Amino acid sequence: MTVTTLLPDPSTPLSHESAAEAFAAILDGTVSDDAIATFLTDLAIRGETSIEIAEAARALRHRMIPINGPAGAIDVCGTGGDGHHTLNVSTAVSLVVAASGVPVAKHGNRAASSKAGAADTLEALGLDMGAAGALAESTLNDIGIAFLFAANHHPAMKRITPIRQRIGRRTIFNLMGPLANPARTTRQLIGIARPDYATVYAEAMELLGAETALIVSGEEGLDEISGAGPTIVVPVGMAMADRIVPEDAGLTRHPISAIRGGDAVHNAAALRALLRGEKGPYRDAVLLNAAAALLIADTATDLRDGAERAAEVIDSGAADRLLDQWIAYA
């Protein structure tokens, strides 16, 4: 590798141009590993701006391997790293929303800080992740759901991963996944584990041209809409209250501990039971987040309507059948 680029001083906020140049150099490998580690650490200590987040995402988008998806496709995912180790809520939500007729391009990965990421749990359910990745464009267009395994679509991240592991703390790249969906979705429900960053993140999404989105963060630092209490909400391109609670969707509150997950086999069993009609805290968490996703997709009129629609999809068996169809397709 030839090192030719010097990174800017991150002690003060970067302009669009300097941020774009910095992240192009980082992803193209024209700067040393030590310089990248120092830059990302200093940026995290100072606090990333919406411009820096947007330009990092734009640089990653320019280098990703994209797919073509149907109009109106959405993504439902979190930035991860919330430390609560819950069951796979966004994965279940993706199946419920897709079974409602809204195409879902689920961007995800294997577990980083949790015991079972979306890919781990889906694999334990019987989905061949290699085939699911290779056929992602086909399944998204044919049956309305796809899993876009991040490693397959972001080769530029291969070099960055060990540097991030060496740093050992959150950096701007912990925020990138939802902003670089290979299907180029412009409608998203994004959970972020840092409530204080919700507004900054929403501003970055606006800079990136998002059509309709909700940035959500449970007040306990949960990277999804919390079934335990208030959730901070920052809307993009739509009207929404700045805080919501489960009762807004006609649902009961449950402590976060009630949806604590385990390994991939444990989480897969819980997800399958949910899709087959099992009631309880996990179902309520999924209904709450699915309701918000259906609002973003302009399929529900409010959270209560969205939760009722999601419950009908589960109880009809449509989401469970979709999972079986996906497994058989891949």
From TrEMBL:
UniProt GO molecular function: glycosyltransferase activity
Assembly with partners or alone: Homodimer.
Naturally occurring in which organism (per UniProt): Sphingomonas hankookensis
InterPro entries: Anthranilate_Pribosyl_Tfrase (IPR005940), Glycosyl_Trfase_fam3 (IPR000312), Glycosyl_Trfase_fam3_N_dom (IPR017459), Glycosyl_Trfase_fam3_N_dom_sf (IPR036320), Nuc_phospho_transferase (IPR035902)
Protein keywords: Amino-acid biosynthesis, Aromatic amino acid biosynthesis, Glycosyltransferase, Magnesium, Metal-binding, Transferase, Tryptophan biosynthesis
Cofactor(s) named in the record: Mg(2+)
The keyword Metal-binding belongs to this UniProt entry's keyword annotation: yes
Protein name (record): Anthranilate phosphoribosyltransferase
Residues reported to bind anthranilate 2: R164
Domain Glycosyl transferase family stretches: 73-319
The UniProt record lists the keyword Cell cycle: no
